[in-house]
Each structure stands twice: as structure tokens, then as C-alpha cells.
Amino acid sequence: MRLILDLAVTHIAGRGRQTLVAIIGVAVGVGFSIAMAALMQGGQDDFVEQLINTMPHVQITDEHRTPPRQPAEEVFDTVAISGLRPRDDRRGIINPTAALTWLNGWVPGRLAQSLKTQGVIRYSSRDIGASIIGVDPEIEQGVSPIVDDFRAGSFAGLRAGGNNIIIGDTMAGRLGAGLGDTITAVSSNGQSRNFQIVGLFHTGTTARDEGEAYVLLKNAQILSERANAINEIWIKLDDPNTAPTVAHRAEAELGYKAVAWQEANEAILEALVIRNIIMYTVVAAIMLVAGFGIFNIISTITHEKARDIAILKSLGFREHDMRRLFLIEGVAIGAAGSAIGWLLGFLLVYALAQVRFELAATGREMTRLPIAWSILHYLLAAGFALASAAVAGYLPARRAAKLNPVDIIRGAT
Amino acid sequence: MTVLIEAENLTRILPETVPVTLVKDVSLSIGEKEFVAVTGPSGSGKSSLLYLLGLLDHPTNGTLKIDGNDTGPMNETERARTRLAMLGFVFQFHFLLPEFTVRDNVEIPMRKLGRLSRPQMRVRATELLESLGLEGHLDKLPEQLSGGQRQRVAVARSLANDPPIVLADEPTGSLDTKNSDQVFHILETLVRERGKTVIAVTHDVEMAARMDRQIHLVDGSIEKS
To answer: Mind telling me how many Å the CA of A334 is from chain B's nearest CA?
Structure first.
């Protein structure tokens, strides 16, 4: 085995410049693959993170996936009945305390209950429809996606005496109201109450900035005349990836619709999968090109070394030895290229991470390119390179092994 | 006398559009310590016969036994193994590996066989080369040697694994008279002093006459003498 290795090293070393070109070919392929993977993955992670941050990981609402069966259907099971008038069930999550206690027992993350009701915000003869959301300020701090988006005030402001409300800045603009002004909230039940604006937020999502108003849970319950009721439980998990399992278990136990963020954004995640497929295709294509470089040099070596192959075979080397010899040469070039490619890839990624640019849309924020550092990218690129090197080395190796020494010895004489 | 090579009706036909018969119905038996010349005009199949005997080529017909073992049913690995341990080759051109030193070239067959330890291989290669008058050239590359010296290295390499049979294909074909004599003398010594069987293809009638036995080929067949 050492002997085959010695022969391989001699062959490769004997073709210094060509070998170098092949190695550089592989290295550039590996390096750029790594850099591209880091960029693509980084962009994706950044995107998913923003996606995750703007919404609860699991959202449990008082809805059901299938309409509840009506009493008449329960009794007359075999008869299809149409035109039944649905019974008016009590709305909201039944027995919320028990549900929350149960969830708190096993969910790895934080919970927040809220009561969302539809209503109208009224100020100086302007009406704007809004979701009025009753929350517990302390708990909401740890769960709500808008905590970081406050322009003025904070959730804590809700606590400070009197009836307080937090609205989006777009809504405030449309109402013509500002911090400290008193607005009127009217619920769909016809209840109305005055609230003082203690906070303004700006999330960048218009639907939210224009259509959400936060009040104390107690106030929301009064507005909708549903004492102690809640109709939404938001869960912020320690690990967002566990959301589907948590949602599944919660839904199975509680019977209410529990939606994981993955389910809510299925289309976007599918698009990301397609992006990944494109990325790996490009990486594979780069490696294919590098593979041709290796194929080229191993082919050249086998041609030039046809005489040596004949000599070695006449001495008593087997076809198997010859195949292995040239396969090793191919893989050695692939391995050397991968090693240099790792360094190149690392430097490229490092350089990309230094790039800073201005967001054109707002012109305010300076952003860095989102870069993902992952050992997986390095292993993957090297794996691709070695695999293509093995294939590129194997084809000429097989041909070389099949050479008949007699043909070459005759040719030489 | 032990029979080392026994061939019966060896035939080699190249399967071209018009089949070319290289060797036709050759039967021979060669024993230990024989010094055999294979002669004949060019194109008579001398070299082809040698390649068949050396397991470099497959006969189209006929059987070949080396040291009593039928080579017909052998697979590629067994044939390679037999070449490695039983047969040594010397060609018209030295056919040394150009990137390796003289001593490394001699060690390569030993390393392939793996019977000795590395230091033993080194000692044996050195001894072989020195016995052929190559002391002082051990660490040179083949291209730094003269034609006669290279051919002597090739002889040393053929003896690396101490095979009982040495096959030589026009070993002096590319050498001048002085070097030819030297190489011939070495081959003779192999038979007389080391007890090898040497089969040499040559078109040099005078040289053939100095060997123990002559096999004369005409159009691929042995000419009865």
C-alpha cells in the first residue's frame, strides 16, 4: 500500500504545474461553494428569524378545525339534516386556567393569554376598525413580537392607573391622535369606553400598525362583556423548531386549533426548500467543472505513464493495483483542493461578513450581509469535491488498468 | 532435472479482421539452469512466444505450465503473483521508472511481493546492484546512467525477488558490442553461478551459439533442427 502511495506521489509531483492548476480548480470550486452556501443559508436564516419573531411560534385560538357537531346531529346520527340553526356556544377557550396550567406544565417556552375582540376606535369623529387585544403586560413582554417596535411607551404603561391603550403609529396618524390623547373604543357588543394612549408602536406591517390596539385583559373582557374569558394563547418556544410537535399535542389535548408558525407560513418555507435545491444544484455544477479538471490531469498522467503501467504490470502488479494508483491520485488532488478550498472559503466568508451597506428603502439602517457559519457547508463542499475527484480519477484509472503491457512493450521496440 | 516451463501446442492468434498468427503450435519443455536462446528472423514470433511464457499475454490455444502449475485457469491476480515471484523480465529497453532512483527501482518488485522487511530489501538491492558492478550509482536516477548501466539495473530488478526464471527480450539489442558482451556475460553468470533459467530472445546468431540450447522459430513455429 505504501508502495502505491509512493508511486502516486511521484506521479503527481512530476506534473507540478498541471497538478497545481487542477488543485486550484477544485479549491476555487470548494471555496466559492462554501461562500455561496454561507450567503444563501445566512439569508434564509435571517428571513426565517424575522418570520418567527413577528408571530407567536404556536397560536391556540378558540376555533376548531371542523365545525362542531350540533346536538341534533348527535342524536340522529344516520340522518343527514340540513338547515340546522347552530347553537350559540359560549365563545372563548373554556376553562382557560386549567388549560394554561396544563400547558405551563410541559411546554418549553413562555405562554401569554389574550382576549381579542373586534371593535372600532373613535377619535374626533374619525372611526377606524380595529382588533382590540386584551393582554397581561408582564407576560406579554416576553412573548409579543412588538416589544422591540415601540416608538413611545411600553407594555408596562398599560398598568399605570386608569384606562390605557397602545395603538400603532399608522392608526394614530389616521385618527390624528397622539401620545396622551384620550380615544374611545367601541366593541361589537356596543360597549364603549375611553382610553388614554400610553404607547405607540411601529412594526412595519401596515395591517398591524393600523389595525391593532392593546389594552389590559380586564378591560377587553369588560368591553366584550365576557368576564374571565380568553380566546387566544400565544406560545413563544425556546426552540422554534419544536413548534409543530407542541401544536399537535396541544391541539390533541385541548381540542382547539393550534397553529405552528411552520403551518402558518407553509408557502414561504416551501419556497425556501426550492431555493436550497437551486443552491445545491449550483454547488454540484461547480464541482462538476472542477471534476473535469481532475479528469483531465489523471487522463494525461495515464497517457504519459502508459509505459510505466506496462512495466509495473510486467513486474507483477495487478489491474486492481493500477486502478487504485490512479484513483488515489485523483482523490489526492481532490483532497488537496478541498483543504485549500476550505481556507479560501473561510476567507471569502470572512470578507463577505465585513461588507456593510445601507438599506435603500429607508436609508436609515446600516446592515451587514447575513452570513451563516456552518461546518456543514465545509464538509458538504469537500464531500462533493472528493466524490467528483474519485469519479474523475476512476474513469481514466479503469482504462489504464486495462492496458495490455504487450501492446506498449511492442510499441516501444 | 526439474521442468520449470512446459508448453503444449501454444498458439497465439491476433483477432484482427484478417487474423494474424503470431505463434503456432509451439510445444517445448525447459528445465532448471538452462540457458536458452530463442532465435529467428524478425516477425517470426520470438517476442510473442516470450510474452506468452512470461504470462504477459494469453495464448489463444494450448496449455502452459510454470513450475508444474497450469496457468490456463489462473485469474489475473494469480498470474500477477506468478510474474512477481517466478519470473524476471529484461527488455530491449531498460524500462526503468524514470522518477525513482536505481535502488528504488530494484526495490519496487520486492515491496510489491512484501516478503522481506524494508531494511532487508535495501540490503538485497544494494548487494544485487553491486554484484553487477553498479556500486556508486545506487542513488542516481536512470537517466544519469549509460545504456549498459541501465540494462544492468534492469537485470538487477529482474532478480529482485529471486525468481527461478529470467526472460530477456533482445537484452543487448540497443547496446554496443562492449556493453552487449558485458550483459551477455552477466546473463551467463546467472545460469552458471546463481542457478537461474535464462531464456533470451535474440537475432544475434553468434550470441545464440554461445548459449546451451537454441530454439529457432520460423513463422511462429519451431523449426526442427
So the answer is: 23
